[in-house]
From TrEMBL:
InterPro entries: ATPase_BadF, ATPase_NBD, CoA_E_activase_dom, Dehydratase_Activator_Redct. It holds the Pfam family BcrAD_BadFG. Its cofactor is [4Fe-4S] cluster. This is CoA-substrate-specific enzyme activase, putative. Keywords: Iron, Iron-sulfur, Metal-binding. Residues 6-258 form the ATPase BadF/BadG/BcrA/BcrD type domain. Transmembrane segments: none annotated. GO terms for molecular function: iron-sulfur cluster binding; metal ion binding.
Amino acid sequence: MSYYAGIDIGSTAIKIVIIDDNQEIVGKKVSGSGSMFYKYAKESLEQLVKDIGIERDDIAYIVATGYGRKLFKEADETISEITANAIGAKKAGEKFGKVRTIINIGGQDSKAISLDENGNVVNFAMNDRCAAGTGKFLDVAAAKLEIDVEELGEYHFKANGTPLSINSTCAVFAESEIIGLLGNEHSKEDIVAGIHFSIAKRIIRLTKKVGLNDIIYFDGGPALNAGLVAAIEDELGRELAIPSYPQITTALGAALMGTWVST
């Protein structure tokens, strides 16, 4: 049995997926990127190999993708995160039907990808890295509100009335808006809902540039945030297709690519 590894080195997290000859996932791992991308990616891969009980030599091919893909020296190949995300979404989204649009919110940027009938990329758009619509902004906002980022979804559903407006497109200025809202004695719950709806509006504007086609697949760490999911679905007027492990879609796509090019 041979194995194939996909490593997605993002700005905030390293995601690794190992699959077998049958393209079934046998191991997955998400860890922080830290300041030394190569070191932490290498250590994470070694730990995952150990955890699933195989040897490093059992991995026939490694494909790296993401922000730090060029830094992973052991990779047999590197591909863009757009391509890897599309491949992974096509596979992980099979249970929902045929994925035609992908929304991906990462640590430093957000992406919208349009696919054709065969799952090939036909168009994509990315936001500005300063934009207040990324995973990093959610982390910063949670810190300012003195709550854990995992609690954002819970706070969202306790909000009352119309969500507050967060208008700044720059994360720094949006952070100042949050501080101002706290100073005006708005509740944390209402501020969280406002943050989620502001991100939802921005990501939908981005997605409309490439086309809102069924089925809309949402991945990236923020897809675990039920409040953000609810806000996007409310703005869209339809449900999103969300995989069980939304953080690893791009790494899965990289691993799948490895099974194709190594044979």
